[in-house]
Amino acid sequence: MGDTQSLEGACSCGRNQYLIVLPQDADSTITIYFDDSSDNRRAHSSPLPAFLRVPLPLLQSTTYAFYPNETHSDIRRVFTPWHAPHIKRYFCGFCGTPLTSWNEETSEEAEMVSVNLASLRSDSLDILADAGLLPSARSERESVTKQTSGPVVHEESRSQTHGQPWFGEIIQGSESGKMRRWRGEEVSADGKSRVEWEIMEFDGDDSGESVESGIGIGKRKLSDLARGEDVLMRSV
Fold it and tell me: For the CA atoms of the chain, what is the radius of gyration?
């Protein structure tokens, strides 16, 4: 990273927002890691939580009250596990979004803070991708957007895609990596029309065989069915 850049993130409801000011030597001071420990899986309700580990002074956070009776302590809540009193997990007290995790077990750990990677904004994830810390997500989103342009939407529409293709690259080769999904939407310039789309891609053979169970799940034409066999057609 050459020039000084900033990463922005927030909770789902927007009451908690934070800013991470990256120094020029951010490549050597910040890291991205995955923690599949049971504590983190339960806290994030995710099989593979991802974190951005940054020095504590780089993180600036603030809270915004939507109503007069909302206080800072109500918006930014903290949880300390009884079996790990040295860990503090911060989350939104209204929408429940996990935000950061701080570990003071050692002096070295206390100088760092782990930010929930999923709470970063998409443009901030692009900054991490440009720095080589994540596989590039911007180019794939742009290519998918181009493929969806057509007569189904207004020619002056603006595009917005959802999901992070880099996660698919991380799990590529695993059972989970055989299926990929992209979601997005097209909104007309006047805001009156919107088209949502979803693309699912499955990497596998064409035999229709289940790898684990060996049970055939391939399609058969009606003419291939033996006589006397019941045929049931359903509309889904």
Answer: 23
CA distance 141 to 182: 9
3 state SS of 114: strand
Where does residue 203 fall: left (phi above 0), alpha (psi -120 to 50 degrees), or beta otherwise?
Answer: beta
Amino acid at 77: R
In whole angstroms, what is the distance from residue 39 CA to residue 78 CA? 15
DSSP secondary structure of 151-207: TTS-TT-EEEEES-HHHHHHTTTSSGGGEEEEEEEEE-TTSS-EEEEEEEEE-S-SS
* Integer Cα distance of 114 and 54 in angstroms: 7
- The beta-strand segments (E) located in the chain are 5-10, 16-22, 31-34, 50-55, 59-63, 76-79, 87-92, 98-103, 112-116, 158-162, 179-187, 194-202
Could you tell me if residue 61 is left (phi over 0), alpha (psi between -120 and 50 degrees) or otherwise beta? Answer: beta
pLDDT tens digits, one per residue of 26-40: 667 888 888 888 888
Strand order across the beta sheet in which 112-116 lies:
31-34, 50-55, 112-116, 98-103, 87-92, 76-79
The token duo for 36 is 């599949």
CB within 8 Å of 59: residues ≥ 6 apart: 18, 19, 20, 100, 113, 115
Q: What digits encode the pLDDT tens for the residues 148-184?
A: 444 443 333 333 444 455 555 555 555 555 566 667 7
For residues 200 and 181, the answer to whether their CB atoms sit within 8 Å is yes
Cα(42)–Cα(35) distance, rounded to whole angstroms? 11
CA distances from 50 to 35, 69, 152, 170 (A): 7, 33, 36, 11
To the question of pTM greater than 0.70 for the whole model, the response is: no
